[in-house]
Amino acid sequence: MKKKRINKRFIIVICLIMLSYFIVTAISIYSYSEYDNLTKADVVIVLGAAVWGEEPSPVFKARIDHGIWLYKNGYVSKIIFTGGQGKEQETAESIVAKKYAEKNMIPSKDILIETKSKITEQNISYAKQIVQDNGLDSSIIVSDPLHMKRAMLMAEDYGLEAYSSPTPTSRYKTWKSKGKFLLREVYYYIGYKIYRIIN
């Protein structure tokens, strides 16, 4: 009986520790989402998101628009669009982004793309290769606010000199949509940290 009580208490303690870590991580991700390290750099890396046919989804459009704003306001001289061809997508995300940027008066010579990535880590790794191949150094990473902490951790792991600049506008505006996004990010962030330890 005494052993059962000890085991029950041990399980409760472990659950409380896990819950506390989850809550602390969520607070950390939310707090980081409000941080914009706006500074000059060589290039802006716009992380991919879904496209609808030949048009960027509202989420991706907000990211592209912010990248364009950084370019037009002199913070960077190049733009890297990331994102491959997802399921049921006819065109790679980065190609759609490039066409959209060109329509918004961004010179083709200043746009670089990769068309292979499927997930955030691949966005970062392929972008790092483009940075190296083009003799660039510092970069600004653009994504949705709640996505930034995980993206910046990956950028650090890949040795990128990167600065955070989340989109000032986001489709995730209501507490319900933000809550779903935050829960997903906590899950993926913790998963990535476990992955780093294992590997």
TrEMBL record:
The keyword Membrane applies. InterPro entries: Cell_Envelope_Assoc, DUF218, Rossmann-like_a/b/a_fold. Keywords: Membrane, Transmembrane, Transmembrane helix. Residues 42-185 form the DUF218 domain. The chain crosses the membrane at residues 12-32. GO terms for cellular component: plasma membrane. The keyword Transmembrane applies. This is YdcF family protein. It comes from Anaeromonas frigoriresistens.
